[in-house]
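Re: the request from the purification team.
They wanted to know what the chain is likely to look like in 3D before they choose a buffer screen. I agreed to run a prediction and write the result into the notebook, where they can find it.
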Amino acid sequence: QVQLVESGGGLAQAGGSLRLSCAASLSTFTMGWFRQAPGREREFVAARGGGSSARYADSVKGRFTISRENAKTVYLQMNSLKPDDTAVYYCAASYKATMSSDPDEYRFWGQGTQVTVSS
């Protein structure tokens, strides 16, 4: 069983930046980020496999960057934050190599970290 621990959430002003980190207890292939705002479904943010390829939701392209330090650590650099980015952000991991945007494709999940962006 892979355990994921997120950190780095908090409060930021619109236009500001935050960096999220996720540490896994074991190596996985794909690691990604999802988010869920109150009253909304969990939505895909970004994913990265073992190489340099990454996948982003249209809503965060050009503002967020996902990176991996190694097979067990992933980061999400969030710049030009907007109030609409306010949500609980979840780290997810999978042994699959698809970098899927479907949360059902991810077997392991972190507990979530709150990101709040004020206007």
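For the purification team: The two ends are 40 Å apart (CA to CA).
Please add any questions underneath this entry.
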